[in-house]
Amino acid sequence: MIADTPETRDLSPADALEATLDWWRDAGVEDDYRDEATSWLAEPEQEQAVTSTKPKKPPEEPQQTALERAFERTDNTALIGGLPQAYPADLEKFREWWMAEPSLSHAGPDRRLPPRGVAGAKLMVLVPEPLENDMASLLSGPAGKFVEAILRAMSIEPHEAYLASAMPAPAALPDWSDLAARGLGNVTRHHIALAAPHRVIAFGRSLAPLFGVSHENAREPATVDAGGKTLPLMLAPELAELARSAPRRRNFWNRWLDWTA
Helix, strand, or coil here: 7? Predict the structure, then answer.
C-alpha cells in the first residue's frame, strides 16, 4: 500500500487510484479474482408492460341426450305408483294422479296425456303409449281413423269406448316385464277396475306382462282380474302392424269374432 505521507495527501483521488494500481503491478498482481462471478455488462431492463389476459371460459357441461335425461330422472328401483293401498279410489282422482305422480313417468304434466272416456264403457282400448302427442288423435290422426274404423266395425260408438295408454307419456324402449314387476302391472289393473269396462283390448302383445300373461300365451284369449272382477282380455298386434298388413287385419278380425261370439 502507499504510505500515508504529506506527499500522498496532495494527490488527487484519480492519481491516488493510479498509484495504488501501480503498486499492485510492481508486486506482480495484474488481475482481480473473486470467488463469485461478476457480470461486467449492464443487466437489460425488463419490460414492465403487463399484458391483459383473457378470462378463461368456464368449461361447458357435456350435453345429455333425451334418453340420458330420462334415466337420470327416473329411479330404476322405485316402486311405480307407490303402494297399492295408496292408489286413488275413483276414476276422476286417478286421472289427476295419472298426470302428476312422479313414479309413473319422468315427464312433467305438460307432456302427459290423460285417458279418455267414462266408466262402464263397452270396450277399453289400451295402447302402450300416447300416440301422436294427443290422446284425442286416436280419433283424428291416421292411427285414430284406423281405431275409429275398428270400433265402427265392432258396432261400438266412439263415446262407448274408453281410450287409455299403459304409460302417461312416451318412453324410450320400455321394458314391460321390468315395469310390470316394479308396479305398473298393479297400476294397470287398478285403472281397469276403476274404468270398469265390459271388455279390454290391448293393442300390443308386448303389454302381456302387465296382465300376468306369458309371451307364449299372448295370442290366446285371456282374462284380467281387476278389482275382484274377471274381465275378458284380448292382446292384439300394435295398431301400426295392423295398419300395414292386410293378413294381420284379417286374422285380428277373425279372432275378434271368435272372442265376442
Answer: helix
